[in-house]
Amino acid sequence: MRLPRSLFGAFAVIALAITPALAANPIFPINSRIGLVPPAGFAPSIKFPGFENPELNAAILIVELPAEAFAELEKGFTNEALKARGMAVAAREPITIADGKGIFVAGPQESGGQKRYEAVMIANVAGITTIVSVQMLEATHATLTDAMLRDSLKTLAVRKEVPDAERLAVLPYKLGNLAGFRIIRSGRDGAAILTEGPNDAVEAVTQPFMIIGIAPGQAPKPEERDAFARRIFNTAPGIKEVKITRAEPLRMGRANGYEIVAEAKDLKSEVDVTVVQWLRFGSTGYLQMLGIARRTAWNDAFTKMRAIRDGVDTP
Predict the structure, then answer these.
(1) Which of 50, 151, 206, 281 is the most buried (most CB within 10 A)?
(2) For the structural domain made of 9-158, what CATH number should be given?
(3) 116-155: b (≥16 Cβ within 10 Å) or e
(4) Which CATH superfamily is domain 164-313 in?
(5) 16: part of which helix (H) or strand (E)?
(6) pTM above 0.85?
């Protein structure tokens, strides 16, 4: 089953900045598999996965990508391409990292009439491709030198997994009951993916999955909720031959909601599946919960998904 990108598009870009003198062990920002030993003066941010140093007005941005992305990324990591986005490359060199390799570039750039300095590393480490961008005012570069940045970036490390407590902590709502599922993706935008089983990504829906996301906007009027819910449900990816078996309003805690249950087939494997969508309406948008499981495992999976749904606590 291919999971929809739209719900986790926000998981891609992360900003960091700098911490105290280089410590012995990498520091992992909350909800990030990627960590490093930041330069002196930087501390983990509570606003984004990374570090920040307000005094230096500097930031380190981290993007996590699949391992196979490195080759394509490397092809486009040319001085000409970087110049097109405003950077005049003044330094370029390979970087050796434990369990991987990287390329480091740095140079001045101008953005919005303000002179800035940026150092960027692309790396392939322990099965993950990452982009690390250190951004600062040009005047800060005298304090935060290329040598200091290289020393910090060389410490880049990847941890095996992010603790559940961290994945849950970044969400703008609470998941009070995981019902045996585990959370494999989460973001400050409210996007979350949960599954029951050992694999993070599977084909043919061999494990039940549940996807949660938040969408802003005006909640539909009561008489419009059925059409609205069906329209949202029709965007669900990876399924075909959909037959809706239930569509009705329901209360979710203190909020109005709408439930759709349907039978379908997995798009690739043609395995019979059942899908549920719950919309929970709020004053400034709605919470979408989409669950899918093989039809043979549906009764058990549906009971657990309902427990997850009922455990969601929004501000």
Answers:
(1) 50
(2) 3.40.1000.10
(3) bbbbbbbbbbbebbbbbbbbbeeebbebbebebbbebbbb
(4) Mog1/PsbP, alpha/beta/alpha sandwich (3.40.1000.10)
(5) strand 13-16
(6) no
